[in-house]
Amino acid sequence: MIDESRPDPPAPPDPLALIASRIRIVPDFPSKGIVFRDITPLVGDWQALSLCTRLLAEPFRSEKIDAVAGIEARGFIFGALVAQAMGVGFVPLRKPGKLPFEARSVSYALEYGESALEAHVDALGSGRRTLLVDDILATGGSAAAACELIESIGGEVVACAFVAELEGLGGRERLGDYRMHSLTQL
Questions:
Q1: Does the annotation mark 111 as catalytic?
Q2: Which of the following is catalytic: 102, 111, 114, 173?
Q3: Which regions in the chain score pLDDT beneath 70?
Q4: Mind listing the pLDDT tens digit for each residue in 115-169?
């Protein structure tokens, strides 16, 4: 049951610093040399999560957005919340083999191999203006594939929104001409 009586929390003096402080840095995970950004402290703090949702949606409230798409798995958390906040539907972009209906797939390269994202072919109609939401922008591989996938099923990518952007990994450059919004840089 949704508690509609709970008011939005007041904005802290530095809301972006609060959000950044809730992203835990875990060295050598999942393997040696990798620095993992753990969002579980952020999603576990309802005030920080509410603030994060509001700040992700805010730049797009005056625009016509028809849908929000989120990348599996952590993009589902933020994407669904942003979709709800904007009063539009949510489109899950899944790992291969997880969708029960006819799906379209886009592959992308990883540092150690290849992966893919899939969406139902009827998830977006022609020209539906779509906001892509994910937790972290790193190299931009999954986000670029997500944009390609959205367009391949008829959507128009309005912008890409991220909770955090990892600097120096080329994600912003890889997304090229797509409009971008990130709450914090790490």
A1: yes
A2: 111
A3: 1-12, 111-112
A4: 999 999 999 989 999 999 999 999 999 999 999 999 999 999 999 999 999 999 9
Give the active site residue among 22, 37, 74, 94: 74
**Catalytic: 74?**
yes
Q: So what's the pLDDT on residue 13?
A: 76
**What pLDDT score does 20 carry?**
94
Cis, peptide link before residue 15, omega less than 30° from 0: no
Tokens of 179: 């409009």
Nearest to 145 by CA among 181, 185, 114: 114
Q: What is the average pLDDT value for the chain, to the nearest integer?
A: 94
Structurally, what CATH architecture does the domain formed by 62-185 represent? 3-Layer(aba) Sandwich (3.40)
